[in-house]
Design goal:
Helix Hairpins; 2 domains; rod-shaped; Phage shock protein A (PspA) family protein; coiled coil; PspA_VIPP1
Length: about 240
């Protein structure tokens, strides 16, 4: 096989596969049902003419039988009357009617047999259409379930446990970094609070010292002069 033939076969195979993927089996079944229904309608139209011919042949047969019976009575009357010429003419008509009866009986039998076969075929086609409709409904349910399962499987196949674990680990690390940052900011806030507390203590010490100075000024003003005042100041230095 040449390269061109091989490429041609590959191309045909790919085209056929693409067509198969595009084909919806339920749509194909719907089209099949429509085609079968059209065939049934066409068959009914065609068979209606045959069935009509059967009824027409039956009427002609009944008429020929009636003519044969009528001329048979006339032959008998002519013979009874002694009119042989009239009897012969009536007999010729009777024989002609009998030939028609024989021919029409054969035609009617054949037409009736054909009509019965057509009716059987029509009934068979109707049953086949009903069977195809039922199969179509069953196939549609199976096809829809298969499509739904396929979509679910495709979704599940895209959910890879390993990749999800990596993603979760990344998320966990990001959360931990955020938590560490928040804790660091909290520590800074605590340090600031501590500094502020010490600053407040410093402010209290200054206030106390100022109060001491104010108290000392008052004491000096009221303290007696002489060694007592000196002893008092010396005691302050010792207490420091």
């Amino acid at each position: 096989m040449g390269v061109v033939d091989r490429l041609s076969n590959i191309f045909k195979a790919k085209v056929n596969n693409a067509i198969d993927d595009m084909e919806n089996p339920i749509e194909l079944l719907d089209q099949k049902v429509r085609d079968m229904e059209k065939s049934l309608n066409d068959a009914k139209v065609s068979s209606a003419q045959i069935l009509g011919n059967v009824h027409e042949t039956e009427k002609k047969l009944q008429k020929a039988k009636a003519e044969s019976s009528d001329f048979d009575e006339k032959v008998k009357l002519a013979v009874k009357a002694g009119n042989d010429d009239l009897a012969k003419r009536a007999l010729a008509k009777k024989l002609e009617a009998d030939k028609s009866v024989e021919s029409l009986t054969k035609s009617y039998a054949e037409a009736s047999q054909k009509a019965q076969a057509i009716k059987a075929k029509l009934k068979e086609l109707e049953e086949e259409i009903d069977k195809t409709r039922n199969y179509r409904d069953e196939a549609a349910a199976r096809y829809n379930n298969a499509e739904a399962s396929k979509q679910v499987n495709e979704i599940l196949s895209n959910v890879d446990a390993g990749s999800n674990k990596i993603n979760l680990d990344d998320i966990e690390r990001k959360i931990e970094r955020k938590e560490s940052l928040a804790e660091g900011l909290g520590d800074l806030q605590e340090d600031n609070s501590l500094d502020k507390e010490f600053e407040k203590l410093g402010e209290l010490s200054l206030d106390d010292e100022l109060a001491k100075y104010k108290t000392g000024s008052t004491t000096k003003a009221e303290a007696p002069s002489g060694n007592s005042a000196i002893d008092a100041e010396l005691e302050k230095y010792k207490n420091q």
